Amino acid sequence: MLTNAPKGTKDVLPQEVYKWHYVEKAFDDICKRYGFNEMRTPVFEHTELFKRGVGDTTDIVQKEMYTWEQAKRSLTLRPEGTAPVVRSLVEHKLYAEVQPQKYYYNIPCFRYEKPQSGRLRAFHQFGIEIFGTDNMMADAEIISLAKDFLDEMGIEDVKLHINSIGCPNCREEYKKVLKEFLAPKYDQLCDTCKDRYERNPIRILDCKSPEDQEAVKGAPRMIDHLCQECKDAFDELQEDLDALGIEYEIDPGIVRGLDYYTKTAFEFISGKLGAQNTVCGGGRYDHLSETLGGPPIPGVGFGLGIERLLLTMEESGIEIPKPEGADAFIAFVGDEAKKKALSLTGELRRKGLKIAMDPMGRNMKGQFKYADRLSARYTIVIGDDEIAKGVVSVKEMESGEQKEVAFDQVETVIGR
């Protein structure tokens, strides 16, 4: 019986992988232009990192993590990127270096949830983080980077939604107001949200069950219960976005699915993706370092799903340029020609050229057909006649022009 890939995973086949290379290079380029340095963290961490950092009332921790016991320690495949980066920041005392610290990453993540369009159980994520400042210029900068990146990918039908979800001080007051509103509807809540009602009622606003969505209709808004510091920060963010010329919509419904967020929360929403329409989301998390046992280090960042990005580009009709074919295909006839072809192939490859050969032992006609499929710019032919004269026959495929070239001049002719 054939063993297929697990549900919620997807192979990236050779005919598709060029699209990944394209967006990965573009993200790498724009992060470097903005002054971010790449960080790579382990694919699994101690489970308590996510329970403490992401929050044990979130769907991620309660339902979606891949966790196992090994040597009497609980380990979890990484469900998101921020908590591991903060762990690394604290563990290696990177906060002692010149601030702010600015990192980006391109990582696989894992969550056990219902697979659907643009959402997999094994998925990939771009992300960036800025540490060391609570100035709203940092929030505006990461939003600006996200917008510039989406613009450069050609995605037009995307709107920025922003919100403030307050700080621990004003959020505690808001929780009281929210619980008063939800108290008469307590029996309508799902079992998970009945538990959240006592531990973190704000999480109920993010629940996807129809019962809870109905129960929270008309609920008080966090944005109306901000303390003065959070109000000022939100006003400053809007001023900075205005100065950058970035259009936005204030959306009090944005909560984000992780407990560590404070103040800024934002999402870039596409009109092409249906219900799961968030292309990029993030916000500020000024107390995550302390939660994980580190010193106070304010931070802000975002995550952007690569599969969902590519789906958005596809739905928008954006064509990603295909890579160019081989610089040259070397065809040969006979044992001596094979030796010469192998020698020339190795030499040209070591000089940085993309050279193809046929390892199937086809006849010359079959080799030419294979060369066409590889879209080679040149076809180089080596046979007994060419060996006797010390040359190869070089054909430029686009023009059809053909000429004989000395072995030591091939690189000059086919090189770019």
Structural summary, described in words:
The radius of gyration is 28 Å and the shape is elongated. The chain contains 15 helices and 16 strands. Helix content is 38%, strand content 21%. The model has no long low-confidence stretch (mean pLDDT 92). It has helices spanning 14-33, 47-55, 59-64, 82-91, 136-152, 168-182, 191-199, 210-215, 228-244, 288-291, 306-315, 335-350, 364-373, 384-389, 410-414, and strands at residues 37-38, 44-46, 67-70, 73-77, 101-110, 122-131, 158-164, 249-250, 262-270, 278-284, 299-305, 328-332, 355-356, 378-382, 391-396, 402-406. The protein is of the alpha+beta class.
Concise structural overview:
The chain is α+β, with helices and mostly antiparallel strands and 416 residues long. It has helices at 14-33, 47-55, 59-64, 82-91, 136-152, 168-182, 191-199, 210-215, 228-244, 288-291, 306-315, 335-350, 364-373, 384-389, 410-414; strands at 37-38, 44-46, 67-70, 73-77, 101-110, 122-131, 158-164, 249-250, 262-270, 278-284, 299-305, 328-332, 355-356, 378-382, 391-396, 402-406.
Question: Features of this protein?
Answer:
BirA Bifunctional Protein, domain 2, Rossmann fold, 2 domains, 5-stranded mixed beta sheet, 38% helix, 21% strand
